[in-house]
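Hi all, a correction to my earlier message: I attached the wrong file for RRM domain-containing protein. Here's the right sequence:
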Amino acid sequence: MNKLYIGNVSAEASEEDFETIFEQWKIPHSGPFLVKTGYAFVDCPDEKAAMKAIDVLSGKVELHGKVLEVEHSVPKRQRSCKLQIRNIPPHMQWEVSANGIDSAVYCPTVNTDTETAVVNVRYAAKEQTRLAMEKLNGYMMENYALKVSYIPDETAAPDGSSAGGRRGFNARGPPRSSSPGLGARPKVQSDIPLRVLVPTQFVGAIIGKEGATIRNITKLTHSKIDIHRKENAGAAEKPITIHSTPEGCSNACRTIMEIMQKEALDTKFTEEIPLKILAHNNFVGRLIGKEGRNLKKIEQDTGTKITISPLQDLTLYNPERTITVKGSIEACSRAEEEVMKKIRESYESDMAAMNLQSNLIPGLNLNALGLFPSGAPGMAVCKKASASSGHPESETVHLFIPALAVGAIIGKQGQHIKQLSHFAGASIKIAPAEGMDAKQRMVIIVGPPEAQFKAQCRIFGKLKEENFFGPKEEVKLEAHIKVPSFAAGRVIGKGGKTVNELQNLTCAEVVVPRDQTPDENDQVIVKISGHFFACQLAQRKIQEILAQVRRQQQAKPASGAQPPLPRRK
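and the right structure:
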């Protein structure tokens, strides 16, 4: 994203004019200005310089009677579902909705030149992204005009890359993807950084004299590298965080391994120096795969030995697992690429799920779910402070899973279900089987809405990871919740209207069996079947109906014949 498009350019403008403007505002550029009729292009050496040019020049600097418009240069085919929004009031708090368009907001940073905030936004569809671009670009927010640009999708073919290889011209002139003299577009930085652990005695060699070595690595690999020297004083290992494209991360990691190997030879350090990758625990299960198949394949393909730190090492303050890779530098480098590929795929899958969740269940405190690593973008979806600070009421959900999947949910010596219960903040128990040939088992989950979301999400995910459902088959489960018998009619609605609307809205199958007898608490069962988000939305909507009934019951005079609605269990 370091190439800039400069629009609204006067016909009298020249390359020398732009050189003068960039020099005047002390904005570096790494290539010549390509000036066309009505617009121009230029490369900046890094993202910081590009951001400074956009913030300082766009809509503010005039050239030959025209106010320049400066933005990132992104071809149409590479316009993804991601936008970057700049010039945001720095004190603003964030919701999962921006100007009425649902989105997942993540990666908040502050532009130190203008003291305004910058966020990246992911949308569910390109049409939503286009509408957001139109509505938000130039939108005034507390005297700040928002500036919006696309984040390019590097998986899409650039404009003009047709089978014939010839570039055509459209109404706006030549395609903007590969202007002469400007070179190839830099790849997009990965949302997930590469984090590695290195022995403390090698940190000095990695940094080099006056930082020369680390500067050279960042320059050659086009990466940003943070060495956390002050963390865990006295520890035998220090974490390093690498921000770049996947290729840039891998190149930087390989260079660091080579430096450590050379330093070990120079200092006669005889112990093996494995590659240690840090990864959030939420991604590790999918990296390992069912019966360890994914990990075994990576070991076989790369000729390495890979081990992962135990769950017992996790704490609330350290949700990362250590993935230790042993082998030659070449083998470890290949393994790193494969490991991080799996982790990035898991992250993208979770981000897509989070984005859909923000659309489906408004009002759920997504920021408190903790599904993602705290150090990665997309993890801090900020929300305005809630008016009510009371604790949400606990709910009980009976989730039915294949009987054969019970072992996977429980885990070795019960470790997985304990970890899941701790992570979700819910009580999770497996009910005894109803008969020898039972094909399903009931999982009893007790906890508030957010705990229900996290627990059910990981159970659905675990069943998919362990291949209890086919690769192209969607995981669909049945969940039961209990409602007071006299409130069941409100769930069904007159002539079944409410339950039909529920099914249309949520895509879940919702059934209130009419022939059931209320239990000892005068409650009946509502059955909900569908994929994870359908089940979640149906559960939330039914709980809203019950809350409404409860409010109406509380508002009735004390002499009313109707007994008060009992609290949920």
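Sorry for the mix-up. The domain at 82-150 is CATH 3.30.70.330 (Alpha-Beta Plaits).
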